Structure formats: structure tokens, C-alpha cells
Fold this protein.
Amino acid sequence: GIPGDHSAVHRGRPTRDREGGGRIGMQSLASRASDPARAAYRARTLRDSPMRAAVPRGKPALRGRLVAAALSDPPGAPSRSQSARFTFTDDDLAHVLRAAELSHGSDGLVQPHPRSGCVLLDSAGAVVARTFQMGQGGVRSEVLAAREAGARADGGVAYLNLEPAHGPAVGEDAAVDALVRSRVSRVVVGILHPVAGVRGRAVAALRDTGVRVDVLGEFTSRFTSAADERAASAVAEGIARCRDANRHLLHRVATGRPFSVFKYAMTVDGKIATTSGHSAWVTGPAARQQVWAERARSDAVVVGGTTVRRDNPNLTTRRDGGHRPARIVLSRTMDLPGTEDANYGLGTGDFEEDADAGAMGAEIRKRKPRTNLWNTDEAATIVMTVAGSRPEFQAELRALGVEVVEFDELTPGAVADYCAKRGYLQLFWECGGGLAGPALTDGVFHHVMAFVAPKIVGSSGEPAPSPVGETGLERMTDALNLRGLGIRKHGRDVLITGYLPPKSSTGALAETEPREGGGDAAGDAWTEDPLGIVEAAAERAGERRERAGDDDGFLRFYKSWDVNGALSNFSPHPIDAPSVWGGREDDDEGETTAEWPTVEHFYQAQKFSGVDDPAATSAMEAIRAASSPEEAARIGRTLQRTNPSLIRPDWDECKERVMRAALRAKLTRHAAPRNLLLGSRAAGQCVLEDSPTDAVWGLGRDG
């Protein structure tokens, strides 16, 4: 029931509902109940929060020392007793793999975010909860699992593919609090959280309370005998699956850019289209369905201007509902079809979308089809160009709802850097060779999806286009050797996947030392796990960011999953606020209050409050019931655009007070984000929502 196709990753082992042999080293209920650290933690959580004290935000490294000083072991390190009694059974592996698989449950439904899954067992080894987080700001998987399990979690084991977000750097404690309150005796963590200031914090906090925590990566070096070989293999498989579940997050931290997938489809003779540019279709329906699914797992789909002119693509997911990635077009000169120009394309335009052109194609030709990307009803379109290019045409596009972003110099690298500032975690590049070559040179691509069709087209008069253009590589020994190779059949077509070598990337990942005795060619490209190198690079990058701190006088926040994310209105902090906001920011006496899942849920719903229309009431109910703040925002913004009569007439005048009331409610109820905010005052910092595009709240408001 998990959306998307992960058969190449999640293979081979059935999920088990019983844990036979995984209860090694569990503490008795009596010893846990009398544990002083656990009792002290309970006292703190009952009083308010484990992070009551406001810590200055200016020196993250100092914050880490303050946290670690209260612990018997540094963050992320097991105690001697824990490491001595570590074991890992087949059942442990099955549950870790299941947690990693569960974490994909939101794929295609919401914007990419750190994937988190949890499998919770009772003290007898029976599975009592399986959960995943639904998008950024959704309820944490650990919190959901504790709710679902209830008292059955007492003495049990929790399996997590990713360490929970915890600590002052993110202003969160809900996941750790839920696990401690549920009285689990053991937590198994696939990989540590890579974000700066977060790595190891939840593990340390759990160990501080007496919970046994096994982090798979801590124990790989302890398997030395032949008897350990099976356990070592199981641990390695568990780590690999957990890394794969968050490969976009690992790459984002390691490179400073979104994880970028380069997809193309070619014939066996290496052509992506005929000489005339006709490309419908290189591959069959099964392969195209995989492309649509990968689009849905991405923040944005990227193409060049040639693709728009030649193919007139839609670049949508072909799904009803769910996440709709932005469509990004790169064009230095804005040499693109006009808003009223006919665009018949030669490849993937509407009239050849799912069938032969025939009579239907002729009829559509008569209607002069426009450029599909200029219709933003189904998905956003962003055109990126050089400053000053065709300003009149830019104005026409903006009037249609197309966003235009200008660059001093438009390069694939500059685009990737900008997309990182927009908070993107994954880009899906479906460009031709003219754009793919510079993107490779700029170190933009990280992963390749190459579909190969059993066809031959050759050329007709002139060479037919190939997947990659100019790269400057002159010798075969300079070729970029892919690692972590995979191969899979989709209908008659074959998909080959692999990761580009670290040297062709950016950031800490590009600094990875080449392998001894052969550089990229060393090792087995089919069996190695290249994400291990990425995780190590992410750890180095995170440590650097912690040491650097926030020295520019600003406390910056944007995405709820990133540093300082608790200040985001998408953060997973429920608030108590009026069902219908009456205009008071700090006094709701006499108003009916309700619990709203997040600030964003409350804010979006109040657009429709007080409007005497059943549709407005239904909108508020739908927003409050939304599974994530992203879904709540989608409902509110869509209705505001398509049915503006439902919006309260004073919305533009009062929305700032609505947001202030919601933030006041969050900061009053939750100590962790409150202390994060107060820490900025102690450090003399200005708080800045670091969104480059939000013209109401963020940096985009005034540039």
C-alpha cells in the first residue's frame, strides 16, 4: 500500500510481526521505574519541556557542549555497556527495513521532506504500531506510534529509519518525549540525522533517560569474528536501506544543493529523438509511469527552452491530487513560445500524449494548442532567465501566473543554488543534451536514471540528438564512472541507475578523497553503497556549520525540517486557538476554542471564517482535518484563487493579526520554540524567515 515503486530497494525479506530474539539486554520494569535519570526526565517533562532554559542562538557548538555536558556519553556515542551487549537479529533487520519502507508512505502526496518511519513492538515482540510522517510539519512518526500503541508500548522496542529531530537547534522535543513517555526500553536507529545541530541529539537525550539506543552505524567496526559475519551483513543492509530512504536529505547537507536526478530515455543506439526532434515515444507506458512517479517525489521538474519549443511538454504527474512539483524552464534569452502562439511541438504535446495523433491530433491542431506550461492551473511554472531578457514577454507570463526569476548569469549551478534557498530537497532534470552537458560540468547531477529502449533510429541527414552534450572530456579515462548501479526492466525497456562520483559534485562531498588504487574505478560498482560516502560528507558539512554558527546577526528559519524549523508556521506544534477568529490576538475569552494541528492550519482556515456560506464552512473543516500543513495550505490557497468570494472581506487587513495570534498561541503552549525565539534575543539576533519568494512574510517581501 506504499505509493511509488521501490521494488529495487525493498526486496527479498518479508516483514514479520513478531520479534524472535531481539529482546537482548532489556531492563526490567522495576529497574526502569526506579532509574533516577528517567525519573528526573519525567519530572521535567511534566513540568514543561526538556528544553526549558533559553540558550543563546549565536554559537551552535557551545549549545552542543551544553547539552553533552549533562550526559554520561557524548551525543551519538553508545556507553561501554551498550556496545558490549549489542546484537542484531534477522527480526531486527526486518523491522528496520519495514520502518524504512514505511517512511516512503508520503511519497507523491506531499513535497519532499526527511522521510521518517516507525515500527513499535510490545514487550512480547508483537508489532503494535506502524507509522510514518506525512510531510513537513506532519505529526512525527514516533508520536503517532506512541498514540497508536498506548500502554502496549511499555517495555517494547521502537525501530526508526532516521534519528528524530530533537534539540535546541530545531526547537523540538516531541518525538523523544513520546518515546520516553511510552516507556519503551529499547530504540533501534538506522542512521543519525544529518542536519547541523541535530545529529546525535535525540540519541543522547534518550540514553540520558536510561533507554537503550542501538544506532546501526556505531557497531559496524565491532564485528571482527567469522561468527559476526551474518550480523554485520544484516546491519549493512539495514544502514543501506535507511540511507536510501533519505538520500535527498543526505545529498542536500553534503553538497548544499538539492539532490538532482538526471533522467533521459534513449534508443539502444544512444538517441533521445530523431533528427527532426520527434521523441514520442522513445519508451513504453511502463517506463513513462516510472517517470511520472519520480516527478511526484520531486520538488520541481527542470527542462530547457529547447524542450519547451520542440516537445510542448506538460511535465505533470498524471495523478489526481497529491504533490504537484513546480515546472522550471531555463532560458537565457527567453526564446520561448508566446502566450498566444500555437505550439504543436513534435514530441510530447497534448495531441500525442497518450495515443497516435490520427483524427484527434488533426482536430487539436485546428484549435492551435498553446504552450502547456503557460497554464498554471494544475502546477506552478517558473521561468529562469538572465536579467533584462524580453521584459514585455516576462510581464505577459506573470499575468498568466507564471513566476519569472532573473539571474545575473544563468547556469545550472546557479539554478541549483537558488533552488536550495527555496528549500527544495530534490530536483528532477528532464532536459536535453544542450543543458545536461553544462549541468554535469557544474556538478549539479547526483543520480542518473537512463531508460534504454530496444529501438534503433540512426540519423537522417544530420546527427540525431544524444542525452549529453558538451562536457569538455576528451579521453575515455576521464569518463564519469557511475557507482551503486541498478538495473530493472519496465515493459520492453530497461532502466539503468547509478550515482555520479563524488569528484563531480560540490560541497563536502566533492572533497572526498579518491579511493586508493584506482579512483572512481575502484570497488564493485554494482554492490557498493555510495551513500555511505555521502553520509560521511554530510557529517563533515554539519560539523562545519555548527562551528561557524550564525555570525551575521540573524537567526534564519524557513523549512520546518531544517535548523530553527520550530519557528516555521509549518512546524508540528499544535495550538489552542478560536474556532472562528474574532479579532483579538491575546484574549480569546468568550470564543469557542479548538486544537489546530499547526499554525498553518489555523491561518489558512481563518481566510474563510465568518463567511455566511456553507462552502466556506466546509473549507474550514477540510483545512482543520488536513493531514499536513502543506495540504492545509494547498486547500486554502487553491480556494482563494479559484473561489475568491469565499474569502472574508477583511482578510488583507487582518491576516497579519491572525498570524500573530497563532504564533502567540504556539509559543505560549510549547517551550521548545519559545526558548528558541527568546534565545535570539539573548544573542542580539534579528529573526528572519529566509524565504526568497514569500512576498508577504519572508525575505521576498522586500528583497
User: Anything to note?
Assistant: The mean pLDDT is 83. The first helix runs from residue 29 to 33.
